[in-house]
Amino acid sequence: MRRIISSVVCCSLVMSLLPMNAFARKLPPADFGQMYGLAASGNLGSLLSAAERGLDLDAPDRSGDSGICVAIKHGDVMAYNTFIKAGASVHPMCVNYLDRGRYESFMSMPNVIKYSDYPTSFVPRENYDYYVVGAFGALLAGITWVVMNAK
After folding, report:
1. Could you tell me the CATH number of the domain that includes residue 94?
2. Nearest Cα to 84, choosing from 116, 52, 110, 61?
3. Chain centroid to CA 64
4. The pTM is what?
5. Which of 43, 50, 59, 70 is the S-S candidate for 28 at Cβ 3.0 to 4.6 Å?
6. Hey, which residues does 27 pair with through a beta bridge?
7. Does 11 map to a domain?
């Protein structure tokens, strides 16, 4: 019985320390154009919902550009801001291959969300759910262990 309790305590501790997305695999969009369309229309709710179900917001299109890079190339402020709000990487690898002048011109536009201006506390809620589950499991296992070892 003590081995079982010890195992539960250890597993709960590991779950509370490891990020849940270490076990999850992000899914590429079924249709990059559809994902970009949601961002371009400012449909943050649908984009966040898809991201919660595993959609990879940083997935590249056929030319290797993420949604952020496509938005910069097209000068699409709405899509860029929506991707940033949804939690896409602010500096994906494809940004390094953009024309520097176009990038700086886009980033200097007044409506573009500057990452430094965006609330740093914004992280999709599901990223912290594993802490609650792990901590609760560790607490239950700890209480059970104390009760079992009480004399």
Report:
1. 1.25.40
2. 116
3. 20
4. 0.61
5. 59
6. 55
7. no
Mind listing the pLDDT tens digit of every residue in the chain (151 residues)? 667 777 776 666 666 655 554 445 555 677 888 889 889 999 888 888 888 877 888 888 888 899 999 999 999 999 999 998 888 888 788 888 888 898 889 989 988 887 655 444 344 444 445 555 666 677 777 787 788 787 6
C-alpha to C-alpha distances, 43 to 39, 50, 53, nearest whole angstrom: 6, 11, 16
Q: Is 148 within the bounds of a domain?
A: no
Q: Which domain holds residue 50?
A: 24-128
Q: Would you say residue 38 lies in a domain?
A: yes
- Tally of structural domains, the chain: 1
